[in-house]
User: Fold these one by one.
Assistant:
Number 1:
Amino acid sequence: MLDEVRRYRRAEGWRGLAEFADLLALDNQTHDVDALRRNADAVAGLFTARGAAMAVLHLRDDVAPLVTGRLGTDPTRPTIGVYVHYDGQPAGRAGWHTPPFEPTLKAADGGTIPLPGAGEEIDDDWRLYARGAADDKAPLAALLIAVDALRSAGIEPRVNLVFCFEGEEESGSPHLREYLERHRDRLTADAWLLCDGPVHHSGAPQVVLGVRGYCGIELTVYGPAHELHSGHYGNWAPNPALTLAHLLASCKDDAGRVTIDGFYDTTREPSDAERTALAGLPPVEEQLLGQLGIAAAEVPGSRLVDRLMWPSFNVKGIRAADVGAGARNVVPATATASIDIRLAAGNDAGHMVELVGAHLRKQGHHVVDREPTPAERREHPRIVRLDAELGYPAMRTPVSEPIVAHLAGVAGTAAGRPAIVMPTLGGSVPLHHVAEILGAPTVALPIANNDNNQHAPNENLRLGNLWYGVDLFATLLTTEMESDR
Amino acid sequence: MLDEVRRYRRAEGWRGLAEFADLLALDNQTHDVDALRRNADAVAGLFTARGAAMAVLHLRDDVAPLVTGRLGTDPTRPTIGVYVHYDGQPAGRAGWHTPPFEPTLKAADGGTIPLPGAGEEIDDDWRLYARGAADDKAPLAALLIAVDALRSAGIEPRVNLVFCFEGEEESGSPHLREYLERHRDRLTADAWLLCDGPVHHSGAPQVVLGVRGYCGIELTVYGPAHELHSGHYGNWAPNPALTLAHLLASCKDDAGRVTIDGFYDTTREPSDAERTALAGLPPVEEQLLGQLGIAAAEVPGSRLVDRLMWPSFNVKGIRAADVGAGARNVVPATATASIDIRLAAGNDAGHMVELVGAHLRKQGHHVVDREPTPAERREHPRIVRLDAELGYPAMRTPVSEPIVAHLAGVAGTAAGRPAIVMPTLGGSVPLHHVAEILGAPTVALPIANNDNNQHAPNENLRLGNLWYGVDLFATLLTTEMESDR
């Protein structure tokens, strides 16, 4: 089967590539609902043309549509759900070498080349540059070409597909839950595939069973009511920048361990199967240290995957007055730190925020959730404002779910090298909605290259990765699978 | 004598005020050499019109002139030097209620009123708004009116005056030393008065004997070569914002004590006379806590003046990535803190920077004075870049200098209430050049109101303070003084 699919894509892949480029030419920046409607209609049109039964669902005028669909309705066959998001991160022109919505093909040496036509050879190392090329229109293109290839070879799929294409993922999926609850009847499947993210650092295909959850915290501490001349008052007026430094230093020690009471207590220990999966992962740390230009990890010698099994406490930004050319000789009036906590399985966002609040109080701070009043500032020598964004929990599908081994086999067959089973990604996606509402195991099956510049300028997809996606979906569609429901 | 001076200024003060307003209408922003030349010429012209022998001295085309002069040449009389700077801080329109170079008179209720004419009464609580109104053209106006008043009353001065009017103070006085060395013959005096800064918080007149010195330090610590996705790498990649927090927290404890080895060792203990002066100062702390809207000082219960006798370690700004609406879910690539150390008597800037460097090494950091190379970043898990601006030392004229008691008497007589002898201001001025090169004791004799918005928008001078300045200079000029040189 794969031979026939590969023959097809070598001869006719240019067609799929042209269609992909047309889809990428549609501005899909996540906050532009009008643009997103055009994308939704285009995506639905492409799948309708392959015989899928598609629906463009609307919640309200100011909400991007959810595109659902179904390809194959044989009740004796298992059904796989495919989740893809068609919206993209904002893309101003700054930093882009070519306009983000003028898809541009480049050779490995960086030279721009025209899209290939009939009979022209295509190099795996060419890359297509555009917002959404990798994140997350790539799986749509791969799926369309896979369906075309099977049809051209006269090969009948052995599984039904159900589609859920979202237009608000890059905005934090604010309406996904509502859409799923309202339309769960259209979205019945034995398992859901999340097609997003890159393949493993080693280049190996991977099946990812979970993501970390998320909660955001902003801490602001207060000094004098306005900035003061640091000569006249420095050494006497309290300095909020230094107070904040002490506070942050109290949250996580120099050895990388979070010292907030109870921070690690609710985390579910890895299961035996997860431990086995973790132990089998190839090391990436030396490669990463080189890529990132650093001498050691936060906890020297630690493995990335082991650290991802635990909640993180990351200071994503600090501000107090200014530094460098903008520095003024002042005692700052306030100091602020933005923090993100990535939640591991078992952690509850609200509970984690409570632990942080308790820690701040233990450090002698009066904790408020809004600007303190002048009276409060006169009363309490130490005040910290805590703003929390509760986010969502982590999700981990057990290694033991039958779909996991099945998908690892499919990915390995498609890639021609064994797939990696990764218990969790470090990032956060609101996967738990799918698991909770649709009641099916969820697994991520990434296809993009690691260096795809996801969320950044010059996002790109290496064509070899697009072809891997084609092979992956073709294999998935044609491999017999035990329905366990 | 004071009665006659006061009679004069009540009747004719409007003339001096009009002349003052004309001087303030000249843009004097510190980096505009052309504008500063116009100011220098105008100032020289005003004193020449009173019979002073003035000189506008030029060093180079791109350097603001130094204005020197002499009023009175009787070799049997003592000679007092008066230092004033005629340049002002930059003054964009932002934040100003009236244009900074359109001097505007306002009543105590905030209403704009025209400049008074002949015979009109003038309220002490009116304020004149303009850049430079307080800092530092006010003493020029007060001096001119005092000279006019004495002349009008036929009172002969008993001291000679020598003038040193600088045009680069707000730029850090980069050429003052060169000017003084080159022209020291013109600048011989028994003592120098620095006329700058505000009267005491309590409103009492004050004689200030010193200032703290200055040195600036900027620390930058390094994480990954570029910002990383905090989900994929948070908990594994080292976070420079947290490293910086630990580093700053290690420099100064939660109780306000600098924990850098040797930081306090070189500070000269207050002399007995300084202790007595300090003990006699009125408390201002409760008033300050109220004004600044804070519950306690950095060291709760400490007196401002006591803290100013010691070097400060002030974090004037911190930056790592961004916070608030600009926050991104990243591990920052670098984190930077700007620090100013105010030096006390006895401290050497270079030595203090060495102590900071030694402290950073003690914390396990590799210290560099430029951007670390990629090879250094791969080798050292902790690197801190230390950029130092060495600044200048503190200056304290001994309380026992005869001029101190003399000036305290003069100020007390002029104000009608006892003057405060303040061993040091918290701020920094390069006073040591005057003491070193001209070899005479230096004392600051401020006249401006405390809430003059020095360096900020809406700088202003309360007219009552201008009149205090007039009385002060008239008293100084007519009080017998023992020449001790």
Number 2:
Amino acid sequence: MNPGELVPAMSGRAWRVPPRSLVEVIDVEGSQTGDVFAVPTDDLEDGLSNGRTFDYGESIRLTTGSVLYSRRSRPLLTIVEDEVGTHDFLWAPCSQEMYEIGYGVTEPHPNCLDNLTASLGGFGVPAATVTIAFNVFMNVAVGQDGGLAILPPATAAGQSVTFRTERELLVAVTACAATTANGGAAKPLRVRITEGAGSPTQGRA
Amino acid sequence: MNPGELVPAMSGRAWRVPPRSLVEVIDVEGSQTGDVFAVPTDDLEDGLSNGRTFDYGESIRLTTGSVLYSRRSRPLLTIVEDEVGTHDFLWAPCSQEMYEIGYGVTEPHPNCLDNLTASLGGFGVPAATVTIAFNVFMNVAVGQDGGLAILPPATAAGQSVTFRTERELLVAVTACAATTANGGAAKPLRVRITEGAGSPTQGRA
């Protein structure tokens, strides 16, 4: 079996992925979140959009069957298998500014925004395209008053979520560099890409 | 008193606004939503971000005291007065594709995305900067399961929400072109800008 590729703790990687492929993101040790971003190869400014995804899915909870849309309303990824069921599309990727403003960090800190933009930048994606990311395994409680609370991820070691690519994409995945959202320590993820293995009918809710 | 400027039904306008100014958006007839987008004049790719705003405010409900942040984590707008209290930052601006996918429209339809990008384009803002907008008066219910439902706006005629600019901005406002979110008919809004009248301490929660 294709073992996939490791995304070391606090880092990010990106791949060019053909249409109808499967991208499985595996939480190797458990309780680790990651950021997933995608952009079609035919328009490097048409990145993933939480607003468009909420528009068409009419929900902020995304799991098997959910389609993730681009800014220009094109389907990019469909969740075809989800062993966990808790993901977040509200929070922006952690960034240097977030560590400074939110946690008082003064030194450079590894962060998902820079890891996404650096890995996608290698394929020519402008940094400004990355405005948001789909936060796999991130466990966010939304209160009745709209308040947000970050809880420890509910993933056990080896659990995964799998996406089907709906067109040719550049897909980036980070192992989130924060410790608060990851049960106290930043850990790796593993990504297994199986080209052309996604059935068009998989994951249709 | 400064009467402000009308934003006719289904249209959009944009202004260059100095720091510490007040931007009041008035629902002239009642039950009408609008999209507000802002970008700092010193970086036309650093647009408004719902994810960053949720990051720092830790809530999806924004009202008096809430700060709206840019993609690069800079404060752009602070809500300093809010006569309504129901706004949305989850849904993306209505677009031609949304009318086609969501409502089966086949002809060109006026839409907030094109109205935002056209009005800001006059100031040189790249269309790709507009990924989301703050939807004033848009009344969205979020279910316990994360499901989203659009309800009629709760605004009475003449009610308003007022923002303070936290730096020099280009601010665009549309009167939303959809009818579903606007109580059955698209109506105008009015925008009153008072340059330099915003106190730095106003609106601090």
Number 3:
Amino acid sequence: MLDRGESLTLLAGVSVGQVVFTHRALPDVLPVNFRLDGDAVVIRVATGSALARVAEGAVLAFHADRIDEAARTGWSVTVVGRVAEVTDPAERRRIAELPLRSWVGDGRDHFIRIATDRVTGCVLA
Amino acid sequence: MLDRGESLTLLAGVSVGQVVFTHRALPDVLPVNFRLDGDAVVIRVATGSALARVAEGAVLAFHADRIDEAARTGWSVTVVGRVAEVTDPAERRRIAELPLRSWVGDGRDHFIRIATDRVTGCVLA
């Protein structure tokens, strides 16, 4: 098991993870670009997407891992936390300057912050 | 969007995905080795692990993706389906011969089949 600090350090070193959410009453998973901003996970999502409609204050799971299958090693970190859209204009401008590319299309003008209320991580070896 | 056949073909070409399940009343995500066996996802889990305790008949989400961040392309497939442990001895022997490595430790003697009741996939471009 990894502690919170170790887990967040690993998250800081990667930029693609998966968000788990409920869509039409069923679990769904989507890969997302993300950045660790302070101790929150920030993702950028498109207007009108299922993710953008996740209710403010809902609890989401976010996951990232890095696996070296040949070496049979890797790590896995899962965050569970409340969701809040970043609406403050100054904060939006600051976050827009993070290297948070939207490689899954244009028009992604929502920034969503996922609090790291619970962080679990493990090393796979 | 990808149709069911296209999504299953993509799953057949990779061997690491993520399972989404509920652990202590909170969502959790774990990377797993898997194989597509017919039209079901088969994973191998350790006795005593949280995944092995997922109730028979529960509905799990399973996800795999392949992302080329530099090229800004990739795909993402999510399966939602009922879980059943493989208990038939002949079936267990057959599945034990699949290239389903347990790089996350020894003692993984449960084979879990996740039905592909619902398959959604998309190309990220």
Number 4:
Amino acid sequence: VHKQNLAELQRKLDQLHPADVAYILEALPLDERLLVWDLVKAERDGEILLEVSDSVRESLIQTMDKAELLAAAESLDTDEIADIAADLPRDVIEELLTTLDAQKRALLQSALAYPEDTVGALMDFEMVTIRADVTLEVALRYLRRLGELPDQLDKLFVVDRDERLIGVLPLKRLLTTDPEASVAAVMVEDVVQFHPEDEAQEAAQAFERYDLVMAPVVDAVGRLIGRLTIDAVVDYIRESADADMLSMAGLKEEEDLFSTVWRAAKNRWMWLAINLATAFVASRVIGAFEGSIEKLAALAALMPIIAGIGGNSGNQTITLIIRGLALGHITPSNARRLVLKEIGVALLNGLVWGSAVGVFAWLLYDNPALGGVMALAMLLNLLVAALAGIFIPMTLERVKRDPAIGSSVLLTFVTDSMGFFIFLGLATLLLL
Amino acid sequence: VHKQNLAELQRKLDQLHPADVAYILEALPLDERLLVWDLVKAERDGEILLEVSDSVRESLIQTMDKAELLAAAESLDTDEIADIAADLPRDVIEELLTTLDAQKRALLQSALAYPEDTVGALMDFEMVTIRADVTLEVALRYLRRLGELPDQLDKLFVVDRDERLIGVLPLKRLLTTDPEASVAAVMVEDVVQFHPEDEAQEAAQAFERYDLVMAPVVDAVGRLIGRLTIDAVVDYIRESADADMLSMAGLKEEEDLFSTVWRAAKNRWMWLAINLATAFVASRVIGAFEGSIEKLAALAALMPIIAGIGGNSGNQTITLIIRGLALGHITPSNARRLVLKEIGVALLNGLVWGSAVGVFAWLLYDNPALGGVMALAMLLNLLVAALAGIFIPMTLERVKRDPAIGSSVLLTFVTDSMGFFIFLGLATLLLL
């Protein structure tokens, strides 16, 4: 009966779109995942490996031998092989390069050479090119002879005899214009195009801004070398939004939900260690005031409020700045205004919330001076938070680092340490 | 000279794509933004309003009178009017409804009726439909007669005489198949389609998964009522990723980088107030142990470490869970395994980092018992963090609330309060 169930499951898997099989594999714990993976037809391995996340792909590839991996890779297009190459064992890649024909080998090697997060790493090579001097009628006949067109194809690329891009012919125009017209007369010459070394981030913004479905990729002298399609861009947008979210939360990389405890722990250690180091420093700031705390234990109870609200308020600022930097809305010329605005918000919040916590401390401990110190410390720490919230991401950006990674940890470090220092320092000076 | 510069600027603006003008408006402080807005040709107002963010749109609409707003809205398609309707004054919408013809009015009213974040709110009405009983030759002639096709059109919708969708004819097939064939013979019948009340989130996942460019939207009886295109889906993906990021950082809504201090402060107050309330509670937990802290001030210096690492570790867990829920990878049947894995990670981290901080406290204060309490408290708080990191977002999801909003605040509340309670409680029991 068990065998019958498996046969039934296998039959169902065969009918599913590779992306749906990938989805099922993602949601299964490791042992069940490998069971299902065994049931997938070998010839579909390649397209499914392409759809799963990096961490799940790793878990699947570990169970495959060299012959299986080679067969899977050979079922893919060159640009698709490049997409999963990072997870393939070195010897499989090498063997693969020897089995490909010269043209494909060159394509694969150039695709592998482009760094992640560039247009070159996202592009594919499935284009249809025509010459400018033919009529639309000829173009239509040519397409019919091809028999099949690539997915996401919404335009033909018009090239000269040196393969240089001179325009594009949108299928829309091809379908609605008199077939007697020449390609040259109908093509669009002003084309959004990319170079393989362009940042993927900028290409994604162009796709969003101009509602593109597909765009040509050309080399330095304008020769057509590939195309970028909206599905690759959407995957990139999703993955980079995910990566930002994960790294802001202190995860080194995408983590398989069902990875082993050991792998999961390792993925989280780097940021936990950094956090621990900054917490130690903040702890030593408090340690310097232990004498004051012994005399007035209320300080210990109140100090996390100052540090915490500073952290929260600073995180609001930092998030807006990171987003503004990512969208390109922040420039050196408007940065001064931003600083003034954030200082304004910090002053306003400092007066409002500072008064609130001041009154709270005063009433709770029947000590108006303690309330005053509390209010003043809150105001000052909110100013610190605003400035740190602006300058930390902007400095990371200036030194060419991703402002989304680590700035939140740095900020909390500043608002914690400074919050403790300001509050305990003021209390020691003014109350004791 | 100033006048000449303005004329020059105006000429440049006229040549830019509306999305590029929108981008410039986003990056300008309010006074300069309004200056540029005045220079934009009135007939382009509509398409530019469509491209800017909600907060910037609000700032622009405030400067426009009723006639200008009506003219801008009338230059847009019905589904586009619906997109900006939320920001238009009530009387403009009402006047608009009276000026539209009956068919457009019905479309606008139905588009306005769909809640945000549904397919209905994202769809447009620019479709090309054909009948199944004609030949491709007839279809090609029909397209040529139309003269112009909508953007992002990669297929024609095949409908019966009751406007029910019976298939789609991809342009790819239309271009590569013998024109003598009938639409019925060539069309694809197994089509990914949506209902207007479907969640936009799920439609976006389908677009990503199946690499769609465009899909039909049908009503309950299968009648074609609109289409969903990849550009609307990409905008939705970007906006909801942004909204998640902003709300996780405690911002109520998208904030114009250059909004006034007052508006910015109001946007941030809700979450600051909630944070303040939770910080008060955590402060009272510490307050309950003031006697212990007076006797051993080292407790005050060490307690933020326990609370802080708990918060960080819990945030790692919560981020993975929120992501798993959003992608649909977490189901009731695999939740138990997730809990076991996270408990495993917490135990491992508790042993490793607990020992580290225990040794640190022991050496620093020359007090082995204090080190032991520190290690034990760390282990326990990491367990609390793991459980809170799983159950908070899963509970929010179960009660149909967005787990991305507020779960981080709730988590920090739990790890702070419990961290202080566990550490100070253990210290009071075991050390004093």
